[in-house]
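Final report, section 2: Outcomes. Of the targets proposed, NAB domain-containing protein is the one most frequently requested by collaborating groups, and we therefore present its record in full.
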Amino acid sequence: MKTLAVNLHEEDDSDSFAERAENYYRKRPQLLNLLQDLYNGYLSLADRYCQTVIKQYRAASSSSSQSISALNFDVDDHGWTHFDSQQNDSDAESSLSYQAPPTSLTQQQQQQQVKQHELQEQNALDSDALVAQLVIKTVEYEFLAHELATLERCNSESSRKMDLQKSLLEVLESERLVLLGENARLGYSVNALTDENKGLTREVMLMKRKAGDLARCVLKMRADHRVCLLVRRIEDLQCQVFGLEKKNREYSEQLMEKKTENSECMEKNHASDCAAVTEKSKMGSTRWVKAETIFSKKASKTDSNKKWWGKVKKMDLFFLCGPNSNQQVQ
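The predicted structure is given below as tokens.
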């Protein structure tokens, strides 16, 4: 009982409901074992008490039977002695008639005493049995009261747990509603973001198309710029060619004039000295050779210029066809 009280005191000193429940479920088998031992002890005490009462009853019954037999023997002895004295003092009939009533009265009194004694013993045994039954019933009542208290405690704990679970369910339900609201809000935001993403993808496609168009325009501008530069260069080259042609014509005219002058000089100085004529003819021949070499060089330059001009025209046609070919490829 001391250990049980200590355990209950320790359970009461626990802080939270969870610790109490854990202590209860941990020490419940110990409490049940203690109660079972207590119940067995009470039963053993009740059995011992009943056995002692039965032994006392048997001893009392045996002593009462012995006392009754002793009283009957004494009565018989007394009757016999009284009968002997009457035989000596008077007749047998008068003594028998005189001694019969007192023997019957004493026997009846003795029987009544025995019956009263038996009734007292039975009453004592009944009272002892009632006390034993009362003790057993009180023990059973205490066990039932303890079990009922434990059941009430379990019921209260279960009701407390149910209340806690209800509160937890309410909290979880509120959290579920909040999460549903957040989920709906997030769904709307996701839909809005998907719409924005679609719009952005469309804008990106448009920007890509615009970028492609701008790239094409840039390529066209580059091609046009190159064409312009080439046209300018061609024009410059054409100007140079025209200038060179003019110079070539001037040189050719100068050569013709020199030839005519040389021929006139030769005709005028034909009558002069042969040495002078020969020298002049040599000089004229050298000049003529030089002029012919210069003329041949200029002719070769004009031919090269014509070839270069043909190449430029071909390049012009190539660049003019270039942007169209790039557009077709794109």
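The two ends are 103 Å apart (CA to CA).
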